[in-house]
Specification:
Number of domains: 2
CATH architecture of the largest domain: Alpha-Beta Complex
Largest sheet: 9 strands, mixed
Order of helices and strands: EHEHEHEEHEEEHHEHHHH
CATH topology of the largest domain: Spore Coat Polysaccharide Biosynthesis Protein SpsA, Chain A
Number of strands: 9
CATH superfamily of the largest domain: Spore Coat Polysaccharide Biosynthesis Protein SpsA, Chain A
Strand content: 15-25%
Amino acid sequence: MDYYIIIPAHNEEAFLSDTLHSVSVQTLLPKKVIIVNDNSNDGTENIIDEFSKNFRFFEKLNISSSKEHLPGSKVINAFRKGLELLDNEYDFIVKLDADVILPSHYFETIATVFKENPKVGLAGGFVYELNSNGTWELNHPMNKKHVRGAFKAYTKACFKSIGGLKNAMGWDTVDELLAQYHGYDIRTMEDLKVKHLRPTGKAYNAKARLMQGEAMYGMDYGFYLTFVASLKMAWKQKSIKTLYHNLMGFFKAGRNKMQKLVTVDEGKFIRKHRWQGIRNKLIG
């Protein structure tokens, strides 16, 4: 199967070489990899140039957006710029972070899943991060069916059905909900162990604190579902401030009449799907 990869990169000098090397040794190589150098002022561009010189499928795109490392909009803006350079001659497309190391069989396994299971529209592995003892340990969300935003792979049909990636915080949740709305399954594979070199959220600044609640508003969760989801996040992060910030973000989005990320029908599906998932966990 043919696939494309788009890698947004902002000041990734410390990690990018490892990421690109892990792509270059895949047992199933990509048709093309667009590395979007977004306003970097370190050695990121030099690393891209070196790999582009040695491997024909790497290609650089320089853009200049905000210097702030906010979740959501900055990354997806870079992804979309990279997407403009690609044609439609692919079987699946990948949004990949610039701070991960993939196992060499990663995309061969993804391709096999897509080829053998036409209903699967979105697939990925599991995140591992270094703990204080220097050991790589699982750091995946409680929902094992969720594919982390660091390595999302979509079939072309699924990607087109969901309208691509939303340029907002919550893009890596709403994509899965919309995929299911359109009848696609999501597949995660525990044997695909991805090393995440930068601990989650370390680069986000203070402005990101309210954005999770804004994302829940954008996905049309409604207040009660937002409260339950935020309470769950607060419990996982062991911080009541998470609940507070999420709710403040939700109310702020409402006051500002922020545009929803989904249609009315999609919102109804999302709320029903989320509540069903909560009920299943309580019963099971």
